Amino acid sequence: MFEAAGLHEIDERTLSISVEHPSFEDWWEPFTLGVGPAGSYVAALEPDRRTYLRERCRELLPLAPFVLSARAWASRGLV
User: Fold this and answer.
1) H or E element in which residue 3 lies
2) Domain boundaries in the chain?
3) DSSP state, 62?
4) Is the dihedral of CA 22, 20, 66, 59 positive or negative?
5) Residue 23 in 3-state DSSP?
6) Alpha-carbon Rg for the chain in angstroms
7) Which of 6, 14, 27, 76 is most buried, by CB atoms within 10 Å?
8) With a threshold of 0.85, does the pTM exceed it?
9) φ/ψ (deg, to 5) at 45
10) Using one digit for the tens of pLDDT, what is the confidence trace for 1-60?
11) In whole angstroms, what is the distance from residue 32 CA to residue 41 CA?
């Protein structure tokens, strides 16, 4: 645990989530909506680059159905 003068409390949180995707198309479709950083990135790509990215993701992901897991951490120190 990190210690510093004047630090009264540390609040740490971890969020873990796993999502089952029944098909590659169900996983890919939200990226095509232009929402959030990833969607904005995909929407800004030229059509041939978007196609390349989609097919590269298809190559790297397991066959459907597949489960993807993510974990996020956040810490906040109060002085």
Assistant:
1) none
2) 22-70
3) P
4) positive
5) coil
6) 19
7) 27
8) no
9) -70, 150
10) 555 555 556 667 788 899 999 999 999 999 999 999 999 999 999 999 999 999 999 999
11) 9
